[in-house]
Amino acid sequence: MGNRIVTKFGKSKSLTDEEIVEIQKTSKLSSEEIREEHKGFLKLQPTGKMTKEQFIHMYKLLDFDCDMTDKVACEKAFATFDKNKNGTIEFDEFLLAMHFLRPNTIESNVDILFRGFDFSGDGYLDHEEVTAIFDGAVALNLVKDADPDYAEKTASEVFAILGLSDNSKINKEQLIKG
């Protein structure tokens, strides 16, 4: 038991079927793809956790379309994907980051946003959750020269475009159509 590697789920190096099902909900990958990604992740991160420095280094190496040379942006990007706020990126958070930053269809990006930012888990995004999406975009420098109120204002604009008040909630279909 001394050589067991702990994952986010508190289990050993191999993923259980339950863990794979949970990850499939947020990644849309097949169980085989998840196992392969996990195997690769553990080769790079034998502890099952990625530090902030490792995360930033990986993004610089992969040359994603975001400015990771800006220290503040790097800190915010890390905070965006560290969903459980424990100071490390676990496998499921890593997959979310990888799939969010890879080019995809609008539908798949909206699906990823919902799965990643629906903190309440109710299948809807409220104003605070939509604001968090735009905070993440600013953190990754996907939005250049944003003013300090950009995320809040843009979230309100999204609700207004959809004909909703800031107290409403948005479902996936509304966001895709809007």
UniProtKB/TrEMBL annotation:
Signal peptide: none annotated. Coiled coil: none annotated. PROSITE patterns: EF_HAND_1 (PS00018), EF_HAND_2 (PS50222). Keywords: Calcium, Lipoprotein, Metal-binding, Myristate, Repeat. It comes from the Eukaryota. Pfam families: EF-hand_1, EF-hand_8. SUPFAM superfamilies: EF-hand (SSF47473). Residues 69-104, 105-140 form the EF-hand domain. GO terms for molecular function: calcium ion binding. Belongs to the recoverin family. PANTHER family: CALCIUM BINDING PROTEINS, NEUROCALCIN HOMOLOG. This is EF-hand domain-containing protein. It comes from Adineta steineri. The lineage of its organism: Eukaryota, Metazoa, Spiralia, Gnathifera, Rotifera.
